[in-house]
User: What shape does this take?
Amino acid sequence: MKKIKSAIISVFNKDKLEKICHLLSKNNIKIYSTGGTYDFISKLGIKSEKVEDLTSYPSILKGRVKTLHPKVFGGILKTNSRSDIEDSKKYDIPDIDLVIVDLYPFEETIKNSNDHYEIIEKIDIGGVSLIRAAAKNYENTVCICSPSQYEKLTEILNNNCSTDISLRKRLAVEAFNKSSVYDLKIFSYLNESNDSIELRYGENPHQKGRFIGSFNECFEQINGKEISYNNLLDIDSSINLLRDLVSDKAIFLIHKHNNPCGVAIRDSLTEAYNDSLACDNISAFGGILTTNKIVDENTANQINELFFEILIAPDFENGALKVLKSKKNRILIKLKKFPSENIQRRTCLNGELEQDFDNKTETFEDFKVVTNIFPDKNNTDDLVLASIIAKHTKSNCIIITKNQQLIGSGMGQVSRIDALNQAINKSKKFGFSLDGASLASDAFFPFSDCVEISFKNGIKSIIQPGGSLRDIDSIEFCNQNKMSMMFSGIRHFKH
Assistant: This one.
């Protein structure tokens, strides 16, 4: 256990600080403070020492530099090593056991002001440095970086002012999380000010929206209205699927609400478009179209008959552009290169989630045949296609393919059986035969029920991750009914 004997306090938000200061004073803990915090503490009738008196250096540059001094950071970073003790004595560096700091309200300023210089002034330097120093030296220093931690600090001050190493480490973790999120907000703002797109609105008209990134690095818009928030989400989904579908043949994709509703791989672009549209020509209305080939005039004439939001291609023939530009709001985009994807981020609760980009894409060589029946050549190609489409479809999902074409999909269901029935019904609705088709599931089958339904509808081959305690039930059913099943060993949830 380590006892707190001295503290430095430098906070922007003084809420709930009064109780903490009284407890520090009651326990005879020496207080160092800065600027407005010193004034606040003094008005409470509590003694504290100005940081300027400790450092023998005034607050300069309108208060932007106050705590950045060896006597402050030496006190926070000091360890019990002989050399640290000798340095502290030589340079008259005090021990600082407790750091209470919050950060300038950068995010709040962004929300309430459009003044760039006002926003920049709210980038905290000293506060972040104090937090990081205290958190780094958690073996010797307690770091309190938010008023939300005052309740825990109150417990400490009411418990002989002592802390154990596990508590100090936990507070350090919270501190580094605080500083990393803060830095990310600054990065996002500065990146936005240099390369951003103000969108017409967000997901809905009552929401503001903006894109922060380098859109023009990878894409060139050559026609149409401003790109919307929802357009960008569809573009992201479509481009990620196209990236995984490596083929010398023509690939044509149609996306709606971030899900593929049309996929076909054919010898010619016109065939690929027509067969992609045939997958679901109702959902294709207002969709996002994407291809890996230069759009020719003949294909453009056929595409022109469909109402769609966006067409993305490596390039367009002059004749094709003349046809497609006949509707001025239609968005035409050249794909210059695929965006580099390393980390995915999204907001969650009062923080953010971060994960590695799902860059795993299976080939047939990655699959393991677990049944007595081996899939034939057509089924092997279709299983790979189905598996890749499933990776890019909202979970729970089932994907059915045949002859390198998406013929049925069920997505975003809470039940895998519901997803399967949706895919089967959709396939039949658009006139496809399921006899000999291939099926992919984004996660394992906990029971054999989905396999049994698939068999009754003529599906011949299945690819799934495997890993259920009852995998053997599905495998045995396939063996008894001359179906082939393969395990990928990889789950691709998309939430």
About this structure: Residues 165-194 form the longest helix (30 residues).
